Amino acid sequence: MKIIEVEVVSTSTIKPSSPTPSHLRCHQLSFIDQLCGHTYNPSVLFYPPESENEKLNVVEISKKLKQSLSDVLSCYYPLAGRLNKNNSFVDCNDEGIPYVEARANCNISDIIQNPILHQLHKFVPLDLSGKVDLLLGVQLTIFNCGGIAIGSCISHKVGDGLSALMFTKFWAAMVRGDEDGKSKMLMPHFVSSTVFPPRDMSLVGQGVDIPMKNLVSRRFVIDCSKLEAYREKYAESDKLKDPQMRRPSRLEALSALICSRFIAATKGLNAEKRRYAIAHAFNLRPRIDPPLLENSFGNISRTIIQHLDLTSCCGDDSTTYSHIVKQMRDLMSSGKEQEFVKNLQKGIDQTSNFFKEHAEEFAKGELVSFNFTSLCRFPLYEDFGWGKPSWVSTNPLPYKNLIVFADNDSGDGIQAYVVFEEEDMARFESDKEFRSFLSPPSESNY
């Protein structure tokens, strides 16, 4: 395994090109913002050189990135501020964000062809665990071949994954010089604290600590054609029992596949003592009445969780999968219910309550939750003016049993970033049925 070395060449501070007006200096956190931890949503866009003999003009690119970033921060002014210690607001003081230039000791193809997930943090400038009060950091990395990577990380305390992606989309439009970059379709709307009013967090209580031991991350690329055949197979089976039963969606089918193969693969690892729960993160923007714009900034998404009932399974794998698909459908449907949103607006969070109620079981490892989130069909592959990236890394944070889905660049596969405990992962990634869904030649990446 090659060790990638990334050396910082320079660090500068980028400030907004125009000062934040006094009436906007205090950016109030929403109730959902308050529930989120101050960790970072990392994203790295990899751009290879235009050809073997023509490298990207790094000096000109860096200049454009800095100038445009300063303008972008005038619109995304909370990101240039500092997080208040009492978990209630951001001081929009225009102190700015770090902009790092670095050099890697490899070619960009070394990364794209065989991504090593635990080394990808070297392409973003901040510790992902959120040990500083910065809300955004940007890093430009230059490779030996002349390719570049643009890494950014936005604090989860102020924005969800879609907020981070819309920031990148807006920034890319500004670099390209598109007038659309300043249009109402991309300008951020800071409405989350109005929709989800902040609460006294001393009344809400602390979160539940789930044991994190020997966590490992893997990236699997799922072949969509194989997943499609799987969806059709189980749709036909279900329709024999219920003609009204619809075919499972891609997310339902893939989520159920990972759950069922994990359960099958880890039998014997104290599995008889385990119970399971399934959780999916939902974008709440279209579910609010009236719906919010896509470019509404903040944590406007939330996870819904429920127990996974396997008591009526016959023990064979196909029955287990079928049961999980049905319950995944129920979970995904509940995420569309406006009642869930209305409860959040009242300060009632089903997910936090679930974890508190079962805190002891989680602590003992008797209750295992599968935590899914999806970036599929979101704007990942942004063109800053020198072509679209060859790959976008959305490596998740090391949270136990976290699974993040994202489209690949060609659209014929889904990247599944999976975080399991080491012993569970060893069994899961060796499962023959799961591996039959993977795209060759690169089936998984460490």
Question: Any key phrases for this structure?
Answer:
Transferase, acyltransferase, acyltransferase activity, 7-stranded mixed beta sheet, alpha+beta, 31% helix, Chloramphenicol Acetyltransferase, disordered C terminus, CAT-like_dom_sf, transferase, 446 residues
**How would you classify the helix and strand content by structural class?**
alpha+beta
| Global morphology | globular
Could you give the order of the helices and strands?
Answer: EEHEHEEEHEEHHHEHHEEHHHHEEEEHHE
Q: From the alpha-carbon coordinates, what is the Rg to the nearest angstrom?
A: 22 Å
Q: Superfamily at the CATH H level of the largest domain? A: Chloramphenicol acetyltransferase-like domain
The first-to-last residue Cα distance is 9 Å
Q: How many domains is the backbone divided into? A: 2
| Fraction of helical residues | 25-40%
CATH topology of the largest domain: Chloramphenicol Acetyltransferase
Short description:
The protein is an alpha+beta fold.
Q: Helices and strands in order, then pairings?
A:
Layout: E1 6-14, E2 26-28, H1 31-35, E3 40-47, H2 58-75, E4 82-83, E5 89-91, E6 97-104, H3 108-113, E7 136-142, E8 148-155, H4 161-176, H5 192-195, H6 201-204, E9 215-223, H7 224-241, H8 250-265, E10 275-283, E11 301-308, H9 317-334, H10 338-345, H11 350-357, H12 359-364, E12 367-374, E13 391-393, E14 402-407, E15 413-421, H13 422-428, H14 432-435, E16 444-445
Parallel strand pairs: 6-7, 10-12, 12-14
Antiparallel strand pairs: 1-6, 2-5, 3-8, 3-13, 4-5, 7-8, 9-15, 9-16, 10-11, 14-15
Helix pairs in contact: 2-4, 8-9
